[in-house]
Amino acid sequence: MASQVSHGELKLHQPDNFQFDSVPDSHDWLDLYDHPFADPIGPDSVPLIDLTNPKLIEKIGKACEAWGLFLITNHGIEPELLNQLGSQIHRLFALPAEVKLKVAKTEARMSGYGGVPSARFFPKFTWSEGFSITSSPLEHAQEFWPDDYSSFCEVIEEYKKVTRQLGCRLMHIMLLSLGLSEEEIKQNAIGDSSKILTTMHLNSYPACPNPDRALGLVPHTDPGLVTILYQNGVSGLQVLRRKDGNAGGTGHSCG
Ligand SMILES: O=C(O)CCC(=O)C(=O)O
Predict the structure, then answer these.
(1) pLDDT-above-90 percentage for the chain
(2) Which position among 118, 137, 176, 233 has the lowest Cβ density within 10 Å, counted as fewest Cβ atoms?
(3) Residue 94: inside a domain
(4) Mean pLDDT, to the nearest integer, of 68-72?
(5) CATH no. for residue 62?
(6) What is the total count of domains within the chain?
(7) Which residue's CA is the nearest one to ligand 1's atom 10?
């Protein structure tokens, strides 16, 4: 049995318990959510868009209409920053369970250790750990590494800065694809990217003895206007396309 920790309504499980030889009933989703699945690499796959493409506005407009989602290349985020981010995230999730649970999310505090809030409405646990950073990472980092918190904070702050800029750039293109003029965008929409509220969710998916029975995250809709997801080589995300009810995989992740 997975030991459960109750923090308000949020369900958590202890990560030490991921060391199962088989998937326990508490984490077994077999037959609970069966849905059609489209080939992640075939012609009906999620669009892959090069941000240097001269027809960018048209491509992004079409992808938004058809999917509400697209994979991007040539986004300009330095691979070195992404490597550092991966290392810091690994460092965080490698901490002992009792340390991470010191900053567990509660109903009143949505930053810290724990899964997505909608997980509480599902009967099973997912095969993942999560950590949310709603404003500054400083408080949690000091709790985890009192003598060595700055490298974590620097990498997280830098990643937040560059993804905020990227989010604004993408939003700008989406608005152009809807027919707004530069002038209208300047007057009414996004101006200073540093003023945009961002929440960063870190997800870790431990190795699973039988992935066909487990689920990484519960089906959900992100609450924000734009989500930028760095997959870090972990494919598996599926997206439900309302038009035909098919779920499309994002296939291979891209840098
Ligand atoms: O990690 C993934 O592939 C999906 C992440 C996600 O959907 C989320 O954090 O909202």
Answers:
(1) 49
(2) 233
(3) yes
(4) 94
(5) 2.60.120.330
(6) 1
(7) 222
